[in-house]
Specification:
The complex is a heterodimer.
Chain A: E1 2-8, E2 11-16, E3 28-36, H1 39-45, E4 56-57, E5 61-69, E6 81-84, E7 87-88, H2 94-97, H3 111-118, E8 124-125, E9 142-145, H4 148-151, E10 152-154, H5 161-165, H6 170-180, E11 188-192, H7 196-207, E12 212-217, H8 220-230, E13 233-236, H9 242-249, E14 257-260, H10 270-281, H11 290-298, E15 304-307, H12 320-325, E16 329-332, H13 337-349, E17 361-364, H14 368-377, E18 385-388
Parallel strand pairs in A: 11-12, 11-14, 12-13, 14-15, 15-16, 17-18
Antiparallel strand pairs in A: 1-2, 1-4, 3-5, 3-9, 3-18, 5-6, 6-10, 7-8
Helix pairs in contact in A: 6-7, 6-13, 9-11
Chain B: H1 3-18, H2 35-39, E1 43-47, H3 51-54, E2 71-77, E3 84-90, H4 96-115, H5 133-144
Antiparallel strand pairs in B: 1-3, 2-3
Bound molecules: nicotinamide-adenine-dinucleotide and zinc ion (2 copies).
Chain lengths: 389, 151
């Protein structure tokens, strides 16, 4: 079958690969109908997560049809149309029981790598490096999904593939940020990053009752989507002093909730940006935390900063003093998608949550290298490239 | 030995040293212990099952039972409704390989008890594995990854 693979730093290829087979009794095999690029993939492509092997199949946000079921699968059957959580979670360990699915104790067969890096191992994510379990991803005609009863969700009739697709990752990640940061009716919420994740975080905050939601980015097409499709306010950080603007908009308090959806390759204008780039290239820091720093400085006293953006290891010049003295809550997580997908699908069915506009570029899987190029360069207004196997 | 095999071995070795590196935040296990103390530490997983479902020191759950009388096993209730702590330590002085074997056995025992299976990843679809030094090192790491870590 055809699959889009990582073949080196800044190199995505389309290769012929063997078809997957059932490996465990709780597995299903899916025929993939749509699979989409995620900002997290850019960190792999850029070589910032050095645990990819040439030939690894990428992709972790996808929708498909069940074509084969393992003998211990109870609730899924051949023909089901399902979206899938990006992290494989067993459903029976203590973390899964707390609905902290991306922390599943049993979902990562390579725990030694991440334990060494972080002290404990989170779960495993499809198509997201051997440090995160090494399970093949979804940019392919077929895919094997373990723990199928826990991680796959039947899409209700009336919800299109392209809408449901984003329940998998972008929407569930955004929703998780707004939820776990404790967004309450009346809150002012600021979101850094207007990619799929930031836009969905903004929409979630609105649906959870936030009074004012402001999204910060620099890409004009993305800022336009924030205004037109999400219904939030948009700020261009290249022409506006973000911290001053947020202070002015919030009666001097700062936002109650700050959701960072940018990650380790944040862009920063001027000298601080160059400083971070150089340190990252020299491997003196692994991540560029520009947006997190700004969020901490902007946040109101006693507020919450949540990093949805992915970070790998070390950052530099972290304003811990501001976080401590302002009494902030700092939190972050990989997506606990299993916790949110059912509710998101229901909101999608009711047209409260609309995601189709994120799929700016829909193309055959064989065009994946060009899709990733457009996505990475944010060319031609690309927000997400969707691949059709 | 062929160069790729050497590099692959080095990848595995790198992973085992990662946990002894004294960079702040990287590698936590037994950073300051001397090797003998480190080798004799209790290694433990917490299993979300009642203690009697996990087993007893006299009959530990498989595949931990395979380590026989080389290890001492302790099974006790975990605080806060977190299940059962399944712990083991070597009686004699183990080799690095034996410690790796114990880590893998503890992880597998937990997984079988909690999920009824051991999650597999191979064989699975992949494209051409271009032979590169980084690739070989990574393969060495993944070969060892169930036997390494801070456990
Ligand atoms: N926590 C999770 O489970 C999870 C899930 C999906 C994605 N992510 C992460 O979330 C982040 C965003 O994902 P995405 O798919 O939306 O990515 P994306 O690349 O499409 O969007 C990132 C956006 O951030 C903007 N940006 C860059 N620097 C900025 C700055 N200093 N201030 C404000 N905006 C800035 C970019 O212009 C871009 O629009 C990535 O780091 C990704 O890895 C995490
Ligand atoms: Zn993602
Ligand atoms: Zn679990």
């Amino acid at each position: 079958m055809k699959a889009a693979t990582w073949t080196g730093v800044n190199e995505v290829s389309v290769e012929d690969v063997p078809e997957p087979t059932l490996l465990n009794d709780r597995d299903v095999i899916l025929k993939i109908s749509q699979s989409v690029t995620c900002g997290s993939d850019l960190h792999l492509i850029g070589g910032y997560i050095p645990f990819m092997r040439a030939g690894d199949v990428m992709g972790h946000e996808f929708i498909g049809e069940v074509v084969e079921v393992g003998k211990e699968v109870r609730d899924r059957k051949v023909g089901d149309r399902v979206v899938v959580a990006p992290f494989a979670a067993c459903g029976s360990c203590w973390y899964c029981k707390q609905e902290l699915y991306s922390l599943c104790d049993n979902g990562n067969p390579n725990p030694g790598i991440t334990e060494g890096l972080w002290g404990q191992s989170p779960g495993g994510c499809f198509g997201y490096s051997h440090a995160m379990g090494g399970c093949a991803g979804s940019h392919a005609e077929f895919m094997r999904v373990p723990y199928a009863d826990v991680g796959t969700f039947v899409v209700p009739e009336g919800v299109s593939d392209t809408r449901a697709l984003f329940a998998s990752d972008a929407a569930s990640t955004g929703w998780m940020g707004a939820d776990l940061a404790g967004t309450e009716p009346g809150d002012v919420v600021a979101v850094w990053g207007a990619g799929g994740v930031g836009q969905m975080a903004a929409r979630a905050a609105m649906l959870l009752g936030a009074e004012q939601v402001v999204v910060i980015d620099r890409v004009p097409e993305r800022l336009a989507q924030v205004r037109d499709n999400v219904g939030a306010e948009a700020v261009d950080y290249t022409t506006t002093d973000v911290i001053a603007e947020l202070r002015e908009r919030t009666g001097g308090r700062g936002p109650d909730v700050c959701l960072e959806a940018v990650g380790m390759e944040a862009h920063a204008p001027g000298a601080p940006g160059i400083y971070d780039q150089v340190k990252q290239q020299l491997r003196l820091q692994t991540d560029r935390p520009t947006a997190v720093r700004e969020a901490i400085m902007a946040c109101r006293k006693g507020g919450t900063v949540f990093t949805l953006g992915v970070f790998a290891a070390m950052v530099d010049k972290f304003p811990l003093g501001a976080a401590m003295n302002k009494g902030l809550t700092l939190r972050g997580a990989q997506v606990h998608a299993q916790r949110y997908i059912p509710e998101l699908l229901e909101r999608m069915r009711r047209d409260e949550l609309v995601t189709e506009h994120l799929a700016t570029h829909v193309m055959p899987l064989t065009d994946a290298p060009e899709g990733y190029r457009l996505f990475k360069e944010k060319e031609d207004g690309c927000v997400r490239a969707v691949f059709l196997p | 030995m062929e160069l790729p095999a050497i590099v692959s071995r080095a990848g595995g070795a790198l992973l085992s040293t990662l946990q002894h590196v004294r960079l702040p935040g990287v590698g936590q296990a037994s950073v300051t212990d001397d090797p003998t103390t480190a080798a004799h530490r209790w290694r433990a997983v917490t299993v979300l099952k009642a203690p009697d479902q996990v087993g007893s020191s006299a009959s530990p759950p498989p595949p931990l039972d395979r380590l026989g009388d080389r290890v001492e096993v302790r099974i006790s209730a975990a605080p806060g409704d977190k299940g059962t702590e399944l712990a083991a330590r070597f009686l004699g002085t183990p080799t690095d390989d034996e410690i790796g074997e114990l880590r893998a056995a503890l992880r597998e025992a937990k997984q079988r008890l909690e999920t009824g299976e051991v999650l597999r990843v191979d064989p699975q679809p992949h494209g051409f594995r271009k032979p590169t030094p980084q690739g070989a090192a990574l393969e060495g790491m993944t070969d060892q990854a169930d036997k390494e870590g801070v456990l």
